[in-house]
Each structure stands twice: as structure tokens, then as C-alpha cells.
Specification:
The chain is an alpha/beta fold. It has helices spanning 3-7, 21-25, 35-47, 70-76, 92-101, 114-121, 125-141, 164-177, 193-205, 225-234, 263-271, 280-291, 301-309, and strands spanning 16-19, 52-57, 84-88, 106-111, 146-151, 181-186, 214-218, 239-242. Bound molecules: coenzyme A (COA) and zinc ion.
């Protein structure tokens, strides 16, 4: 085996990109985006063949005013048959609103550090898990898949270092409750590739967590997101979260920057011969569209290169 075969031995032949721009991205935008434009953005992302588009969030409108139009967004989307339109749900009230709107896929969210859970969802980790019990039960009754986000896996804005044991116990609890997928989030963008490998190794060797249940979700605050994705792929992960244009940040994580921009992993994956099904030119079109409404530059390197190539 050559050195190259060896380093890429576990890399999957295809990767599922979970587009979180309309939710994780827009929730942190200061400018209120009109509902019609959010719907258009979601539709453009679906037209780009992104397999999952996290379209909005049924959280408290007081907590996230930007996404208070969740029902109108979901009901306004002309759905494509191959796209999974997922939403974030924090509690039973959110779940009931989501079901009324016709949602078919949900995500619940907690954290690996107590202080972040308290700031983000006003609950201890244990309380948050208890709150999800009826949500997941309803999802099961309606045969909806449930993703579980774990924030602050690689570091917390309030506590700093997070012990891997915390991540493992929250991960196991979410899976036992019925989540079919876990998204390990680097909420503040502090992770490095070695840490990614270590956490994944600990999770996988702790038993009852399988590689096909794990997604990675990196914010690019310090420019490390793409390197971290590569490390995760080398461990065999094949589900990657990203956000068109690199939108995002977290309202409860001061100074956190946007998500890894969808254009950038798609470009690198295709270059490496790894399939995603995503139409990069159409992602660029979606980015160009949403960029018109933002009061800041977008962070996608690939998008910037496309803009420069025009001059
Ligand atoms: N949808 C709409 N309204 C909701 C709601 C939901 N999912 N959950 C709670 N509310 C309303 C309640 O009806 C109540 O309204 P009232 O004061 O008019 O009676 C009010 O919000 C407070 O409800 P409570 O159950 O006490 O919740 P809370 O204030 O402790 O908030 C969360 C808990 C989790 C609902 C809230 O913190 C939240 O939505 N956070 C979102 C955080 C987020 O999205 N972060 C970014 C993603 S990582
Ligand atoms: Zn995020």
C-alpha cells in the first residue's frame, strides 16, 4: 500500500452534505430576511441537490426572532421529492408547531457543557434530555427521523475545555432515546484535526456509537473547519454539515463565526473524487441570491474565487 492509500484508506466514496444555512446561518443574521426570500433560498439549495436542507427552527420566537416565521417558511416551500427538509425543535411546543406545518424530519439539540446548555436552552443537559423524551416519542409516532445536535463538543465559550466523557454520555443518551444521527458541533470553532480524531476514536470505541450515525459540524472561526472535516473523513465519517455562503454563528457563543461554507467542502470533495451529488454552480447561485440581503461579505473561499474570476 502506498503512503497515499494509507492516509486515505478510510475516506468514504460519497459524502452526505447537510445544508444548515437557512437555520444555523440565518438565525445569526442581524438583518431580518423577508419570509419569501428565505423560502426562495431553501428552494435554491434543494435545487442544488443538497440531500438535506435544514430549513428553519421551531424555537421560541423570543429567543430567535429571525426564525419566528418558521411555519410560513415550511408551508411556503415547494418541496422536491428527493430533499429532506429538516427543522430544529427544542421542546414539545416546537414539535407540535412543526407537525402542524407538515414537517417530516426534525433535530433536537443539547450541549456537552452545562453552561452552554443553560445559556442556549435555559436548561441543564439532563433537563434538556428529559424535554426531548416526548418530542422523540411524537416523532416516532409520526415516523419522523430525529437528529441530535451536541453543541460545544470541542470546547465551550464559558467553560473552555470539555471532557470527552461528557460528549460520550450525551451521545449515548441521545441514541438510546431514539436519535438516528448525531451531529458533533464545534460551536465556537476551536477544534483541531488531532482533537477530532481523538473524540471520534473515543466515541467509536465506547461502544454502541457507529460511524454511520455521526455527522460533523464545524464553525470556521479560526479557519480550521476544512482541516477538521478532512480528519473526520479519514476516520470514516461521511456526513458533513455546512452552510451556503458560510452563513452563521451562534447567538449564544460570543465571537463565534459562520459555519464551514458549503461551497468549500463540495469543491474539495469533488476534487478528491468523492461524490456528494451537489451541484456546485447552483450552490453558488443560492449564495449569490442570499448575499444580496446581508450587510456583510460572505466567507466562502470558493465563492470569492468565483467572484474574482469575473474580473
Ligand atoms: N415555540 C414557540 N414558543 C415557545 C416555544 C417554542 N418552541 N418554547 C417556548 N415558547 C414560549 C412559551 O410558550 C412561553 O411563552 P409565554 O411567556 O408567552 O407563555 C415562553 O416561550 C417561555 O417558555 P418556557 O418553556 O419557559 O421556555 P424558556 O423561556 O425556558 O425557553 C427554549 C426555552 C429552549 C424554548 C428557548 O430558550 C429557545 O427556544 N431557545 C432557542 C435557542 C436556539 O435556537 N439557539 C440556537 C440553536 S443552537
Ligand atoms: Zn452551528
Amino acid at each position: 500500500m502506498t503512503l497515499m492509500d494509507c492516509s486515505f484508506a478510510n475516506i468514504p466514496s460519497s459524502v452526505r452534505i447537510v445544508e444548515v444555512g437557512p437555520r444555523d446561518g440565518l438565525q445569526n443574521e442581524q438583518v431580518l430576511i423577508p419570509t419569501e426570500q428565505k423560502i426562495r433560498f431553501v428552494q435554491m439549495l434543494a435545487e442544488a441537490s443538497l440531500p438535506v436542507v435544514e430549513a428553519t427552527s421551531f424555537v421560541s420566537p423570543r429567543a430567535i426572532p429571525q426564525l419566528s416565521d418558521a411555519t410560513s417558511v415550511i408551508m411556503g416551500i415547494e418541496r422536491l421529492p428527493m430533499t429532506e427538509y429538516s427543522v430544529l425543535v427544542p421542546n414539545l411546543k416546537g414539535m407540535e408547531r412543526a407537525l402542524e406545518a407538515g414537517v417530516r424530519s426534525i433535530a433536537v439539540f443539547t450541549a456537552a457543557s452545562e453552561s452552554f446548555a443553560q445559556h442556549n436552552i435555559n436548561a441543564t443537559i439532563e433537563q434538556s434530555l428529559a424535554n426531548f423524551q416526548p418530542v422523540i416519542e411524537l416523532a416516532r409516532q409520526h415516523t419522523l427521523p430525529v437528529r441530535g445536535y451536541i453543541s460545544t463538543v470541542f470546547g465551550c465559550p464559558y467553560e473552555g475545555v470539555v471532557a470527552p466523557e461528557r460528549v460520550i454520555s450525551v451521545a449515548q443518551a441521545l441514541l438510546e432515546m431514539g436519535c438516528s444521527e448525531l451531529s458533533l458541533a464545534d460551536t465556537i470553532g476551536v477544534a483541531n484535526p488531532r482533537q477530532v480524531v481523538e473524540i471520534l476514536d473515543r466515541l467509536l470505541s465506547a461502544g454502541n456509537v457507529r460511524i454511520d450515525q455521526i455527522a460533523v459540524h464545524f464553525h470556521d472561526t479560526r479557519g480550521t473547519a476544512l482541516a477538521n472535516v478532512l480528519a473526520a473523513l479519514q476516520m470514516g465519517v461521511h456526513i458533513v454539515d455546512s452552510s451556503a455562503a458560510g452563513l452563521g454563528g451562534c447567538p449564544y457563543a460570543p465571537a463565534s463565526a459562520g459555519n464551514l461554507a458549503t461551497e468549500d467542502p463540495v469543491y474539495i470533495l469533488h476534487g478528491m473524487g468523492i461524490q456528494t451529488c451537489v451541484d456546485l454552480a447552483k450552490v453558488i447561485a443560492a449564495t449569490r441570491f442570499i448575499a444580496l440581503f446581508l450587510r456583510h461579505a460572505t466567507t466562502s473561499k470558493y465563492y470569492q474565487s468565483v467572484l474574482c474570476a469575473r474580473w
